[in-house]
Amino acid sequence: MGQVYVLDHPLIQHKLTFIRDKSTGTKEFRNLVQEVAMLMAYEITRDLPLIEVQTETPVATATTKVIEGKTLALVPVLRAGLGMVDGILTLIPNAKVGHVGLYRDPETLQPVEYYCKLPPHVEERDVIVVDPMLATGGSAAAAITAVKERGATAVKLMCLVAAPIGVEKVQEAHPDVDIYVAAVDEKLNDHGYIVPGLGDAGDRLFGTR
Ligand code: URA
Q1: Domain 4-206 falls in which CATH fold?
Q2: Which H or E run contains 148?
Q3: Closest Cα to atom 7, ligand 1: which residue?
Q4: Which of 27, 54, 98, 151 could form a disulfide with 123 if both were Cys (CB 3.0 to 4.6 A apart)?
Q5: Does the annotation count 203 as an active-site position?
């Protein structure tokens, strides 16, 4: 079963409070989401494998370490996932970025993929699927399926806020995927919003609504 990591670093929790606050406007909301995404990226990359290399310093040859293998791939789920990409790239500027787009079929209410473009050799990369809100878990599970269908084998999920039911859904569908969140909230309401949550992440990021 995949683990759920609640990233409780004080800076993440402090900034999340202002992200949740309904009086936070678009510009500040956007900035805060990027900042939290950057801090979360620091934690989520803690276990990346290192290899030793020889480095010529101005003084001597040193045995030092670099991250092994191909650069990782970020895969934001359109559209709200886009709001976390630049923050992560601040820390991991060489990361490749793929995209997955999903819509909900009005009859079956199931997520349907309408777009998927991933970096080459995705099977050799650590892949981080990014979506701020893990609500029912339907979209996140479908996005993870989409990247796995194209060969990804090492997948993590990064969200800002999760509902318990969304966590369960992803764990059930993808027991090999660890989930990283800043908070697990109480529940979903009848409209599918996370309670207390932060509202509609896409609308707040892009100033729509
Ligand atoms: N998507 C959002 O943007 N917010 C929620 O609370 C649930 C899903």
Answers
A1: Rossmann fold (3.40.50)
A2: helix 138-149
A3: 193
A4: 151
A5: yes
